[in-house]
Amino acid sequence: MSGFMGGSQRRMAFGAIVTASVLGLSACGSVSGGGGPQASDELPDTIKVVSINPTTGVVAFAGEAANKGYELAIKEINEQDYLEGTTIEIDYVDTKSEPQTAAQEMTKATAGGEVSAVFGSVSSNEAVAMSPLAEQRQMPTIYTQAGSDGVVVGDYTYRATPLMREYYPLLKQYIEETGAQSLGIIYTEATPTLQDIGSNTLPAMAEELGIEITASVGTQATTQDFSAPISQVLGSEPDLVSVLLVGAANPTAMTQLRQAGYDGPVLGNSGASAGNLDPAGEAGNGMVWAADFNYQMSATSSQEFVEAYNEEFGEDPLNYAAEAYDAAWFLARSLKEAQSADRESVKDAMATVAEESFDGALGEGLTWVDNDLQVPGVVIEYSTDGEILLYEGEPAAAE
Amino acid sequence: MSSFYLTNLVLVQATITGLLLALSIQVPIRMGVFSFAGAGAYGFGCYAGAILVLDYQMAAVPTIVITGLLAGLVVLVVGLLIAKLNGLYLAMATVAFCLIISVVAINGGELTGGSTGRYGVISDFTMGHMFAIGAIALVLVALSERGKLGRRVDAVREDPELAASMGINVRRYRLVAFAVSGVLGGVAGAMNILVRSAVSPLDIGFPLIVLALTMIIVGGSLSWKGAVIGALIFTWLPDLLAVVGEWQELIYGIIVAIAAVLLPRGLYGVYVDTKRSVLRRRRQEATDKATAQTPPPTSTGDTTDIDRLAPEMEAQR
Amino acid sequence: MQDVLSVVSLGSIYLLFALGMSLTWGTIDVLNFSHGSIFMFSTFTAYLLLGSTALPFLAVVAVAVAVGALMSVLIQVLAFEQIIKRARTKKNAEMQILIGGIGIAIIPLAIAQHHTKSNPFGLRESSFSVDTWVVGDLRITNIAVMTIIVALVLWLALALWLRRSRNGLALRAIGVDAEVASLMGVDRRRLALVTMAVAGGLAGLAGVLFTFTLGAITPESGDTLLVKAFAIIILGGVGSMRGVAFGAYFLAACEVWVLTQTSGSWVEAVSFGLIFIVLLIRPAGVFGRKEVRRT
What does the pLDDT look like over A240-258, one tens digit per residue? Predict the structure, then answer.
């Protein structure tokens, strides 16, 4: 947990720097647009928001799913007339999975006078490029995914996805049930989130459970063949293996683990979901991970979302869609609270609304801590017949 | 300021950093050194800039100056090491240098921020600084293409043996190419981090080489004007292509391929050819009117051999 | 021992991939940067076909090889020949081909990315299944054995063909001096097309074997291999068949060694650092021909 504290301290320090520089800039009057819809006592007929997400390029799968979540939520908000006479209009802009395009689109959104809020990118790399602009130009921005430091940096930036290190410890119960005494870890150093789990969270969990870590191997973004790290980890004869890799690498690692003769369970991450593990076939069975959402979650609010999503798109929702759905509803509640479409009022209203817990797609009793969402979480096991929900966490609000 | 400028500020900034990055690869190519070390210097510059601002609370201008000098020095050392390599072997060695910079960035602990990188780099950098630095770099590079220096550079590229026999220290020229490329790349990287405020290992590395090379090949590899054309096109093209939606990557690829196939000397080459043929036609008309009134001026004794040689090489190109 | 096996099987994949690139670069001066795209797209085509019918292993290989060869020939005719026609010097042509290849590579990549949303795809629907054999302490899969054998046999066959056959001689002649070779009656165009077809076929074959080995690849997989293959060829020395084999196994050994001896973070720094140092000692690659200057 110490890592998390460090993160939020840095975040506050950064917030202060941003505020200072914004003050400096507005004194010059050059960059700070102060643009956006005018403040008023009531909501206008339409409110414009923009989703700046990748729909082409390497992270397209997440961006597209997120956009579906936004689409469904905004359709519901408008159909229910939740904002009483006001409709939300959403634009979808593609970042092409490139940070520079994401930054450019953020600048466009802030420079135009119409946009009230932005749904920020699912990709950490893009989000880190967008956040300073959001703070500098005072644009309320809600991200999903984007689990790196430097994304939530001030009053204007929120992230409707819990950090993986917050819910990953849910797996402790599963590890205890396996009776494992030792653990071998293979993780990627290419993404901040998985590097953090592999080198901090999981070792801390092991220590609490009194489990020995026999080997820990980091791999690179360019590593495609995992047979060498696998043979190294298996050589240390652990009871249990953890493989923390990005989506596409999971089927390869599982296939090669099975070929190397390891038949036990494997602790993974939610990158294995969404069909990513399917190319591995039978070899993928037995991978277990913690996630913030699964379509089989029992909470009533989650099931309502799954049903509506199925009706709209004819498929079960992914976690990206669920997160985006909650992000859109969070914005809607904030707009209702603000009763004005200007960016500053929206920001203030978000801070007020974030103090309450709510029920959403990600479960019941969801809360915000330091602009980050806290969720109960679930533990999932992969099977070729479909993902199996092993157990769920307790609502954060109940703790 | 106009709303177009504000809306597209990120692209304006990217054009300037992209231009400097392209120049950092173009300068050595103009001297016949096929080095991509400029892209490594760019990555180095991003991180050095971030570290100086965040950890040493340095202001923008000194950050850029120090980063540029450091990057120049680092690349000069690399140049000293690999000076005897040639062609694509040298290119490979510099690619290795770029990749090693990326690995150091991932493993640099607190200093480089691991796979998260460094973020929140906010300083007193203004667009005025940026335009000024971009202009200075462009003028200096443009000057190196003119007069005696320009002709010597051409000689070093086209025929190193001949150049050496005329008393040009080819090795020194090539080392200067490395240092200049390092400075340009480092300054580009430092400016990039100051306007974008964040850098991660994913932002540097091989794709930068591809981008810079595409800019100068499609723009034109032997003149700074080619680099300007290339930087403009490949910074703004993706944004313009956004209207075609999901197939924009495909069209981008087709455009690069067609440009590479049909324009052997880049867009700048097309411009020069057009201008030359127009001039030739005019000169033809002029000669038709007045037939040989004045004899061509004979060269005076004090010009060196290389100076007389250069116009001929110009003609060959 | 298991590590040695890892080195040999990883090195064989690298060899198979680099072989085609090395062949065209060393003979007809085409450094084809769309090789990775051909590699990926031929496998992708096989994957699409498997969506409708379950093909046996050999049919999958045949499809991928055919698609790879076809793409390669098309690229040669539509792009590289045009570039060579227009270029003023050989040096310019090489650069232009490099950039043209990079541009062309984006096209199949964009198509595959669009279709898969960059999710991994595999060839599991094939009736071929990967089995693991256990020999003492060693475990090896049938696909690994096949990859090693195929890589070495093809490498040997190509080397012999270049050395012994008339066409091979002609090709090597082009590699040394294209003008003189032409004067001596070598049909450069036909030979270039054959060479490109062989290289493309090799890319397709490598794609299928690699995908069976890993279980799945992504549209971007080819790009990663491309940089490595470039390093491998340079390391061994352009145009040298011994060089490409040396480079492939050397790089694989470096990577496996660093992975097993350390926590893995420095893999690329060490392998590319070693390449850097080798180049300092042997400026034209380990088996490079000194007299041929390619600048």
Answer: 899 998 877 888 888 888 8
What torsion, rounded to 10 degrees, do the Cα atoms B136, B141, B144, B147 define?
A: -70
Cβ of residue A94 closer than 8 Å to a chain B Cβ: yes
What is the least distance, in Å, from the CA of A311 to any CA of chain B?
A: 26
Domains parsed from chain C with CATH numbers: 2-281 (1.10.3470)
Please list the rounded mean pLDDT of every run of 10 residues in chain A (399 residues). Answer: 34 40 37 63 86 85 90 92 89 86 86 86 88 88 87 89 86 86 87 86 88 85 81 86 86 87 88 81 86 88 91 90 92 89 89 88 87 87 85 66
Among C106, C110, C230, the residue with its CB nearest the CB of B92 is: C230
Contact A353, A314 (CB under 8 A): no
Instruction: Report pLDDT digits (tens) over A288-333.
Output: 999 888 888 888 889 999 999 999 999 889 889 999 999 999 999 9
> Per-residue pLDDT for C51 more than 60?
yes
Non-local (6+) Cβ contacts of C153 within 8 A are none
Q: Is the pLDDT of residue C253 over 50?
A: yes
Residue C280's CB is within 10 A of a number of other CB atoms, namely 13
Please tell me the distance from the alpha carbon of residue A76 to that of residue B273, in angstroms, as a whole number: 61
Tokens coding A126: 């893009």
Task: Give per-residue pLDDT as tens, A168-200.
Answer: 888 888 888 888 888 889 998 878 888 888 888
Contacts 24+ apart (CB under 8 A), B286-294: none
Residue B217 lies in a domain: no
C-alpha distances out from residue B281 to A209, B276, C294, Å: 87, 9, 38
For β-strands A240-244 and A388-392, DSSP reports them as unpaired
Are C39 and C211 spatial neighbours (Cβ–Cβ below 8 Å)? no
> What fold does the segment set A166-291 form as a domain?
Rossmann fold (3.40.50)
Subunit partners of chain B (3 or more CB pairs within 8 A) = A, C
Q: Chain A residues with CB inside 8 Å of B198's CB?
A: 99, 128-129, 132, 150
User: Following DSSP, what letter does each residue of C21-63 receive, concatenated?
Assistant: HHHHHHHH----TTHHHHHHHHHHHHHHHHTTS---HHHHHHH
* DSSP-H helix ranges across chain A: 2-28, 60-79, 99-111, 124-136, 164-167, 171-178, 192-196, 202-209, 227-235, 249-259, 300-313, 319-338, 343-353
Query: What are the tokens at B230?
Result: 């290339």
- Give a yes or no: residue B225 inside a domain: no
CATH 3.40.50.2300 fits A2-162+299-376, yes or no: yes
Confidence of residue C202 (pLDDT cuts 50, 70, 90): very high
Within-domain flag for B65:
yes
Tell me which amino acid residue B141 is: V
Model's pTM, two decimal places? 0.83
- What is the helix (H) or strand (E) element at residue B149, kind and residue range? helix B147-158
**CB–CB contact B93 C110 (8 Å):** no
What's the confidence (pLDDT) of residue A108? Answer: 84
Classified as helix, coil or strand, B138 is helix
Indicate the burial class of C142 (C-beta count within 10 angstroms; 0-12, 13-18, 19 or more). middle
**Predicted interface score ipTM higher than 0.85:** no
